[in-house]
């Protein structure tokens, strides 16, 4: 800011002008990255430091007013919530596929060597479909023009330039085109050479797998009923602080559906009545005749995906849910944020413009790209057209005069950045060489030790047994550790790190455990290729007790990420007495949260607890929670509940 101001004002005024401008920065909107939290804290500290010099009568203001003026309204970009939904959904899909396939290979993996790394098979299939038939298809291996000519409309979207919601939308489009046999029919019209390329064959192999199809359909259903209505709400005109009620409804909707997604599967779920699902061909395709096995897998994957999305909601929307600082804000904050949008898509468009310039004009300097972007985004031409000739001439002369100063400043900055980058690269190279030297030294030591104690490394389980039989019990542990250290020094990532551990929970592993670990290490290193019968495509329709337990374990594991994230607002222990409340329940056997209105009568007496307490609440009584007696509007009976626990779980609100 000071550098910009110094171009047209004398240096004595620069500091003051910078402070005046930045004093007006009251609101920010971020994607909740960890570095943004640090930035907000630094900005608030900086404002507290200079506000006394720019605000008249600062010392006369109360401490509370000063804190409010120095604080910054840190808002959350709604579209980045959808972006995070994509990440959490794909991670959940991958975990679910691992459980559901029971280790068998999916889709193309059973036909060709393929390592999808951290990507789910369903999302890999969708991305491959887009690469073969979408708008940004592969120029040689793909066939976008043939697909466009064959179908009435290609609903696939390009990944480049469409960052938000595109995995959900392309999943829905992929399933629509699949059920209408568009991919298969187009492939039948292609020449044999193109039909046989690996890209097209990978699409066909992936779409033969019902687990993959179930995951794709699940993402498509969530597109129709979750992500797209949320996008419509964010893109609609309205105050940014009015989104708290929508986010609360989103929280409740996901909580209801993640236990029983029947409403999603029969097309009766509605997230926001103001933004109902759009009825079109893609929507209908998701609910046309569905294979029983695909429908089963879609249901299971939706449950797992929603469990992980619920974790995302708890983490990302904490400030917007009941008890958060942006939930039901006062008029002052409402007025301060009047001009704030619900997303920061304007900044995203700047990055999109930069990406386009870097691809279309790779030889442009950074300064030139900055000039083009600022000229287009600020609508400079429109502004100049409205100026008088005299004013326009004055601005052009000022720009011409400052040209050399700006260019010199840019060149100095480029030199400084280049120097810093070179210093970083030198440090990284030194660290890399030092690490390599240590690894070589460790390998040499491990090799010498294993040769000294064992006459060389074991290469099979039989070798391990032979070594153990030749060693005295007191020497077995030392020999096993030497073998494990050797394999650790030459490990290239094939073996899991836990197998190299020498202790567990602070206790040394026994010789028997070390021997088993060594045998497993050798088995992994010497692992033979899996036969086709073992790695065949997953076509077995199974809902065994073991699978059900593994799914339940996965759901609990996902939810454990938010366990202990309690409401920040303290429980009003005495202030809640005689107050009217809203109390949310998920009735036994029910699918939807139900809100009851009532009044808190008193802290429960011993007699109240003995007569009214439900047996399931005994654990909270044992933990020392205070119970309260209350009466609901729709019932004349009295009830007693640990309201502090309900408050922490965001199920209780004072009216």
Strand content: 5-15%
**Residue-averaged pLDDT:** 85
Characterize the biggest β-sheet: 5 strands, antiparallel
Total count of helical runs of at least 4 residues: 28
Uncertain parts: 5-10, 528-539
Shape: globular
| Helical residues, percent | 55-70%
* Total strand segments: 9
Q: Give the radius of gyration.
A: 32 Å
Query: How are the strands of the largest sheet arranged?
Result: 8-7-6-5-9
Cα(first) to Cα(last) distance is 46 Å
Short descriptors:
single chain, 655 residues, alpha+beta, 5-stranded antiparallel β-sheet, two-stranded parallel sheet, 9 strands
Folded structure, characterized:
This protein is of the alpha+beta class and about 650 residues long. Among the domains are: about 80-330, no CATH class; about 580-655, no CATH class. The protein is about 60% helix and about 5% strand. It contains 28 helices and 9 strands. It has helices at about 1-5, 10-25, 35-55, 65-70, 80-100, 120-135, 145-150, 165-180, 180-190, 190-195, 200-205, 210-235, 245-255, 260-265, 280-285, 290-315, 330-335, 345-360, 365-375, 380-385, 390-455, 460-470, 475-490, 510-525, 545-560, 605-610, 620, 645-650; strands at about 25-30, 75, 505, 505-510, 580-585, 595-605, 630, 640, 650-655. It has a 5-stranded antiparallel beta sheet with strand order 8-7-6-5-9. It has a two-stranded parallel sheet with strand order 1-2. A hairpin with a 5-residue loop joins β7 (about 630) and β8. α6 packs across α8 (about 165-180). It is globular. Mean pLDDT is about 85; it is low at about 5-10 and about 530-540.
